[in-house]
Amino acid sequence: MHRATNKNSYAPAASTVPAAINVSGFSLADRCVLCVGGLTGARNHYRHAIEERQGRFIHHDGGREDSLHRLQPMLNGADMVVCASGNISHNAYHLVKQLCKKMGKPCVMVKGTGIASFIDGLGSLSGKLTSSQRGETVLKSGRHA
After folding, report:
1. How many other C-beta atoms lie within 10 A of the C-beta of residue 87?
2. pLDDT digits (tens, 9 = 90+) for 25-34
3. What is the CATH number of domain 18-144?
4. Segments making up each domain of the chain, as ranges
């Protein structure tokens, strides 16, 4: 005699774990990620990529509307930074780079604004990838990696 509960025990594992975690193979382990810049329309995709990897998301637009004075307090609260370097002001770029180095914050400067580049940057910061696969500059603990 087969029980209905046995039938449910064969549910695919992917239904309980988001697919991106299985594919990407890394977790942010409740670390807070500051995303600086990027496309406004992609912000929710960035948030989703971080949150599905058990991270916390905060965002600064890179000086388009958000004041650059907000960057330092946001950096203080972040564990790591992903900066879409092609989509922020020059002042914001240099400020992020300078403050991350001074504070010893892990930071990746992502050249593209696409989600694939963003996830690659996250992987670099998580320590699972030794270097970025798309040629981004990674600053870890105040030194170039």
Report:
1. 21
2. 678 888 999 9
3. 3.40.50.2300
4. 18-144
